[in-house]
Amino acid sequence: MKHIYMLFAVLTISSTALSQLSNGSIAPDFTATDITGVEYNLYDLLDEGNTVILDFYATWCGPCWSYKQTHIFENLWGTFGPEGTGDLYIFALESDDSTTDADLNGTGPATAGDWVTGTPYLMFDNMSNVFDAYQNAYYPTIYTVCPDGTLNATTGEMEYTLVESGQATFDGHVAAAFMDCSNSITGAAPLMAYNGETSACGGGEWMASTSVSNLGSDDVTAMVFAVELNGAAQTDVTWAGVLSNGGNETVDLGSYSETGTFNYSLVSVNGADWNAEDAVAIVGSTEATSYIQVRITTDNWPEETGWTIESGSGMYIDGVATGDLAGQADTELTWDVALNLDECYVFTMTDSYGDGLYASQWGNYVDGVASIVSMDGMDEVGTILEYNGATGDEFAELVAGMEVTSVTGITENDLTSSVNVFPNPFTDNTTLSFSAAEAGQASVVVYNLVGKKVIEMNLGNIAAGTQNIELDFASMEAGIYLVSLTAGNETSTLRVTNAQ
Nearest Cα to 227, choosing from 199, 256, 247, 248? Predict the structure, then answer.
């Protein structure tokens, strides 16, 4: 929940409005008239089998304007709206009643730009009553409401649930609107997801590819992809075959040596124009040692921050999921990570709001910082990444490549040196043992090698001394898992093997 104070300044939101509706909540029905004078009812559109995206925004909201400038909603409307496949509606709901028509059109004092010109989807003004009915707490708040409703046995009326789809990509919204909604699309409907390499290890070539699945009722038989690298057009990529509903195909987008921004767009499907596009940051590799430290000093919204390190083949090595740092505002955190010689890795740091650690823009808050350093014991021997929110740089995703060129020793902290898992390997169950120097909060998270959490244990406030925690892997597949223990401000990660 970000920058709530901004809403108090403009809307004077009641305390009940801060309890944001959770995913799976019933979407409150409403009727509203758009800026052209046409009346719409949410549940009428859902009853007809349409998915509806609700975009709550304010004309003065910078992140709202930045997201509008991606033209994702325009592309969704053109592809799946009434003039496209006819399966989707988008409501843009300006929810600050103190703004004016001039603000909406980009000429008033409380606006980030012209919201009306060139916007093909439905726009509504003075929607604070709907904003409050949805118990929203910040801008933008974007929901997807599915048409696969359920009948309320008491009222005899249909009810429809929502998910907060947020500032997703085109394909992210397609997945939320159709794959997650069980709302099939009329015609062919390919969904892209980049699955190629994201780093050029040692300056070598890298391979680009995308996974394409078909969510539509008709087969995909032909696709054309337009490709750009750092703004320079590359050779179009064509694909022909048969991709049926529910099927998946990996499309080779070529090999390249230059790093930078790789853009690819699906511009034609079965001979008809298409609008899906994606952009991927391809990074080079900075030399690193086999022992690195990830250091982050959080800002006032630590729950928005997460990070991962993956191998060149995409295997999860270490990381912290978005939300896991909640409650640790303005806190200096350090993670020790061991890497393998002559291998390449990609570090990705994410901010769910999209403003990085630049907190001071929102008021009297301290900006966060982040870095990755190569270590040799207690000594820093190189810097791989350095970021400071005070520079004003914002990001939703920050990426750095690393190539391990030398082996160095790890000087273990008090926690790391006391952690042990026994037996290891094991069958079904094992014990995590560690010694805490002082009382404090502790937690254990276990990940599989694709980064999915499979065990999460909040140990609460533990006493100083030796702790033994039983870990149950009986319901999990055999394989390697990463056990991440956090006690105080120290985190230690161990690899374990379930040999069942």
Answer: 256
Counted domains in the chain: 4
- Asked if 359 contacts 300 with a C-beta cutoff of 8 angstroms, the reply is yes
Please state the length of the chain: 500
Q: What pLDDT digit, counting tens, does each position of 337-374 carry?
A: 888 888 889 999 999 888 999 999 999 999 999 999 99
Gyration radius of the chain's alpha carbons: 25
* Average pLDDT of the residues of the chain: 87
106-141 pLDDT per residue, tens:
999 999 999 999 999 999 999 999 999 999 988 999
Q: Which long-range contacts (CB under 8 A, 24 or more apart) does 266-269 make?
A: 266/190, 266/192, 266/212, 266/223, 266/224, 266/225, 267/224, 267/225, 267/226, 268/222, 268/223, 268/224, 269/188, 269/190, 269/220, 269/222, 269/223
The reply to whether 146 and 262 lie within a common domain is no
78 Cβ contact partners less than 8 Å away, ≥ 6 residues apart? 84, 120, 275
| C-alpha–C-alpha distance, residues 106 and 94, integer Å | 13
**pLDDT at position 435:** 79
Domain range holding 453?
A: 416-498
CATH number for the domain spanning 100: value is 3.40.30.10
**Which is it for the CA torsion 304, 309, 312, 317, positive or negative?**
negative
Instruction: Give the tokens for residue 184.
Output: 């099939």
Looking at residue 475, which CATH number applies to its domain?
A: 2.60.40.3080
Quick one: 344 and 381 in the same domain? Answer: yes
In a domain, 494, yes or no: yes
Asked if 94 and 139 touch (Cβ cutoff 8 Å), the reply is no
Question: Residues 497, 423: contact at Cβ < 8 Å?
Answer: no
Examine the fold and report which residue of 111, 144, 179 is the final residue of a domain before the chain moves on. 179
